[in-house]
Amino acid sequence: MANNSNNVDSRLQNAIHGTPKLNPDEQRRYLGTFRERVAISMTVSQIKTHQYEVPFVAQLKKHPDYQLLINGNIDQHLIGPYLKAASQESLKFTIKTDSIYTTNDQDLALVLAAPDSINVADIDVASFQGQAPIKEEKKPESLLDKLKNSFRN
């Protein structure tokens, strides 16, 4: 009977307060995921500078099976290029607009997360700055493009 009483109490607590989360502060920091799943992240102050767009998008292209988590409380013009890149790569993305995701300079704006644990040592986008971007394949010129280019010269 005591076991049944504990079960009822547990169910009542879950109904009142919601299901307990594992490491809620960590999940809040990393836009709803765990640190061990993060491949790369960008803070609000970094997204405002626009200088880290190339290395972040290169990582998006490298990992098409990952998910992009976006702090939706940030201005649309700042997150727009990343939404466009995610859409072009058919990458799943989630925009988090809950009030717990704030927009202070040290808060995260973007997180690229794996479905499982990957344990990347340095996830800050600044550490990816020196890596060469992925080269896009150049499409062969069509006959029309060749004609247009011949008139430009």
Overview of the molecule:
The chain is an alpha+beta fold. The protein has a domain at 33-132: 60s Ribosomal Protein L30, Chain: A. The chain contains 6 helices and 4 strands; from the N terminus they run H-H-E-H-H-E-H-E-E-H. The protein has a 4-stranded mixed beta sheet with strand order 1-4-2-3. Helix 4 packs parallel to helix 5.
CATH fold-level label of one domain: 60s Ribosomal Protein L30, Chain: A
Low-confidence stretches: 132-137
User: What is the helix/strand order?
Assistant: HHEHHEHEEH
> Any idea of the CATH class of one domain?
Alpha Beta
Structural class: alpha+beta
Approximately what portion of the residues adopt beta-strand conformation? 5-15%
Task: Give the CATH architecture of one domain.
Answer: 2-Layer Sandwich
Q: Averaging pLDDT over every residue, what do you get?
A: 86
Report on the biggest sheet: 4 strands, mixed
Distance between the termini: 90 Å
Task: Please state the CA-atom Rg, rounded to the nearest Å.
Answer: 21 Å
Backbone shape: elongated
Number of helical regions: 6
Strand order of the largest sheet: 1-4-2-3
Oligomer: single chain
Provide the CATH superfamily of one domain: Ribosomal protein L30/S12
**Strand segment count:** 4
Measured as a percent range, the helix fraction is: 25-40%
List keywords for this structure.
elongated; about 150 residues; alpha+beta; single chain; 60s Ribosomal Protein L30, Chain: A; 4-stranded mixed beta sheet
